[in-house]
């Protein structure tokens, strides 16, 4: 059932949206910055490495590599790429584990504080480490965030390996190969960003729902104001009121990077 929010409910929605935006602002976090620095270092290191292969085989300004040479060099490159992938994966795992734990815990307590401004007699509640970990580790399509990170890095490494191989075979200039390396590393950052962003949204909603249940909220209202490219499904859910046990959950029941939230009815 759709129901227009009254002023009090509008204010509560705004406060929860502000909290969500705060949770999503991880780009200044030192571990995230460290991931960006690592990405850049490995990118430059790889370009140097490929530059050396180039020098080794260049004759009269043309790359002179047989298929056998290429396969030999790609084989050697594999272990280097493997190390790069592992290094980036580990740093992203650090971000995922500590950032999501913190997001879950803070979202739980802060959202209850916010609701407490609009609802009387809220009992003192606590969330256990076990519940937080369960929320953080939840699988989507059979994978939790660390497993997804691993798959993402494997795809990245494979893509870059195949791109380099193809361009060596095509006798492409070193400038073109460097551009490709830049592009592949940039998309790796976008993929990381997407995963972290989506997981924060998912964990935020999980913590909110846990908090609502613990303080006895019975109904929630769907809010799709933040979903910039709101799909028709999310747009049509805006202001829809659900019993807490029947409510669809943003991301889990909608789409990746959904920015909708559920606002508790006080
Ligand atoms: Zn949405």
Write up this protein.
There is one protein chain. It is built from 7 helices and 5 strands; from the N terminus they run ααββααααβαββ. A 3-stranded antiparallel sheet has the order 4-3-5. A two-stranded antiparallel sheet has the order 1-2. The mean pLDDT is 94. 31% of the residues are buried. It has helices at residues 7-23, 30-57, 67-116, 129-136, 145-169, 174-214, 232-237, and strands spanning 58-59, 62-63, 219-223, 241-243, 261-264. The chain is mainly alpha-helical. It is 66% helix and 6% strand. Bound molecules: zinc ion. Residues 224, 227, 230, 234, 250, 254, 258-260 line the site of zinc ion (ZN). Zinc ion (ZN) is lined by residues 224, 227, 230, 234, 250, 254, 258-260.
The gist of it:
Helices cover 66% and strands 6% of the residues. With 266 residues, the protein is mainly alpha-helical.
Largest sheet, strands/sense/barrel: 3 strands, antiparallel
Please tally the β strands and state the result. 5
The residue fraction in helices comes out at 55-70%
Distance between the termini: 17 Å
Poorly predicted ranges: none
Q: How many distinct helices?
A: 7
Overall geometry: elongated
Strand order of the largest sheet: 4-3-5
The amount of beta strand, in percent, is 5-15%
Chain-averaged pLDDT: 94
Task: List bound small molecules.
Answer: zinc ion
Structural class: mainly alpha
Computed CA radius of gyration, to the nearest angstrom:
24 Å
Topology (elements, then pairings):
Blueprint: H1 7-23, H2 30-57, E1 58-59, E2 62-63, H3 67-116, H4 129-136, H5 145-169, H6 174-214, E3 219-223, H7 232-237, E4 241-243, E5 261-264
Antiparallel strand pairs: 1-2, 3-4, 3-5
Helix pairs in contact: 1-3, 2-3, 2-6, 3-4, 3-5, 3-6, 5-6
The chain binds zinc ion.
Residues 224, 227, 230, 234, 250, 254, 258-260 line the site of zinc ion.
């Amino acid at each position: 059932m759709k129901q227009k929010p009254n002023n009090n409910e509008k204010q509560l929605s705004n406060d929860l949206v502000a909290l969500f935006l705060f949770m999503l602002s991880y780009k200044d976090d030192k571990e995230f910055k460290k991931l960006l620095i690592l990405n850049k270092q490995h990118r430059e290191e790889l370009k140097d490495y490929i530059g050396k292969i180039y020098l080794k085989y260049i004759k009269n300004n043309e790359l002179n590599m047989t298929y056998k040479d290429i396969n030999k060099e790609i084989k050697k490159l594999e272990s280097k790429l493997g190390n790069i992938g592992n290094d980036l994966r580990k740093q992203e795992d650090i971000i995922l584990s500590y950032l999501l734990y913190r997001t879950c815990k803070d979202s739980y307590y802060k959202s209850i504080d916010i609701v407490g401004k609009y609802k009387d007699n809220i009992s003192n509640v606590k969330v256990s480490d076990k519940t937080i970990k369960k929320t953080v580790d939840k699988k989507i399509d059979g994978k939790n965030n660390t497993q997804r990170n691993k798959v993402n890095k494997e795809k990245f490494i494979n893509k870059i390996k195949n791109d380099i191989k193809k361009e060596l075979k095509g006798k492409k200039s070193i400038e073109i190969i460097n551009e490709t390396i830049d592009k592949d590393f940039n998309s790796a950052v976008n993929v990381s960003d997407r995963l972290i962003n989506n997981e924060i949204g998912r964990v935020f909603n999980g913590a909110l729902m846990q908090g609502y249940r613990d303080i006895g909220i019975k109904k929630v209202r769907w809010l799709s104001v933040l979903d910039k490219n709101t799909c028709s499904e999310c747009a049509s859910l805006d202001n829809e009121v659900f019993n807490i046990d029947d409510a669809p959950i943003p991301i889990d029941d909608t789409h990746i990077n959904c920015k909708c939230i559920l606002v508790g009815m006080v």
